[in-house]
Amino acid sequence: MAAQSIYAVVILYNLALSMYLFLFPLYLDHLVFSPMVIGVLVSVSAVFQVILRLPMGACIDRIGQHNATKLSSATFLLSIIFFFARPLLPFFIIIQLFSGISSTLFWPSAQAYVVSMSHRTLGYRMGMLNLLTGVAGIVGPLAGGYSKDLVGPEKSLYVLLGVSVVLMLVTLALPRLHKGDTTGHTMGLMESMMVVVRKKPLYFAGIATFCGATSWALVSSFYPIYMQNQLGFSSTLVGLLVGLRALSSAPGGFLSGIYLEKIKFRGMFLGSILMGAAGFFLIPLTSHFGLQVLIICLIGFSSGALQTVALVFVGEVMPKNLMGTAMAFIGLFWSFSLAVLPPLMGAFDTLHASFTFGGLGVLFLVMGALGLMVRRDIV
């Protein structure tokens, strides 16, 4: 029952989140904000996540994954409600603040919840988590793109609101785990954070998480705008491409979870890095829709594999009473990626679009080399 419930919550949350991430930059573009302002606004949520992620993770270990997951869904719903205020810059900052708080709570608590379950192997559970996340991720952008084409960017927000309400209701029915749900009472917030920060192996998982988030930073900022304005694809086709990134991450995440029992962490990490870098380099080289489908699937598969590598690694090396804090710590790298890359891509975009995608490819290679240096003894 617990496994089915948390998987349902994850599906709905990522459905709402991916739809939100798709609509947000396009809605700002509809309001004629400049590319630089759009990049800054997109990154605001991630900036708040960088600040709050680790303290929130320590709080999760104290209040329990069950309560933290409910609070995250409520906060996300509140962020969507603010869309219906006046379309002014302060309200968009508030929206990003609440969505950032929601993410800092949801992903560490959901991941720690999955680790605490006894259903099958950890690799299978984390692979399934990423599989369902990816499947939900394709529906959100498709729904966002279709609703935008059908009723316009403003009325499409009502669809997003409806999904958020359903998410809240399903989260309220999430059962409490009898073991491993409320942990970390013997350690203070600052103490637990300092213990996690000193764990060197977590930096390898953090780098894998950063690289896994790079494709998210791309598709939630300038990728939809580039595909729509530069290549002339419709919103529905752009939504399909964005969704395919999420869908292709599903088999990447699931298969890496299954085969991590046979393939070393190091090899899985390196192969995923090379795959993702190749995809970024190829994006500006073609305007053919079919080839762009193959490229974004390559990037998505790499992203899913890197996320599972990070999650399984943390689940194996960290004790359960620090699992929320540890998941939050590697989530800092995810937030940092989303905070830094959109405005950086905006700056490169003012020069030439190819600089944006080529820069991401180079970044992937550099981070891959750094990850191998940090954890040379991974087996």
Key terms:
single chain, 379 residues, mainly alpha, Growth Hormone, Chain: A, 14 helices, globular
Strand content: under 5%
CATH topology: Growth Hormone, Chain: A
Provide the structure class.
mainly alpha
Characterize the overall form. Answer: globular
Keywords: Cell membrane, Membrane, Transmembrane, Transmembrane helix, Transport
GO molecular function: transmembrane transporter activity
Membrane topology: Multi-pass membrane protein
Subcellular location: Cell membrane
Structure notes:
By secondary structure, the protein is an all-alpha fold. The chain has one domain (2-172, 189-374): Up-down Bundle (Growth Hormone, Chain: A). 81% of the residues lie in helices and 0% in strands. It is built from 14 helices and no strands. The protein has helices spanning 2-30, 35-63, 65-81, 89-116, 122-151, 156-172, 189-197, 201-219, 222-230, 235-259, 265-282, 289-317, 323-349, 353-374. The longest helix has 30 residues, at 122-151. 58% of the residues are buried. Mean pLDDT is 83; it is low at 180-185. Keywords: Cell membrane, Membrane, Transmembrane, Transmembrane helix, Transport. Residues 2-379 form the Major facilitator superfamily (MFS) profile domain. It is a multi-pass membrane protein. The chain crosses the membrane at residues 7-27, 33-56, 68-85, 91-110, 122-144, 156-174, 202-225, 237-260, 267-285, 291-314, 326-345, 351-374. One of its GO terms (cellular component) is plasma membrane.
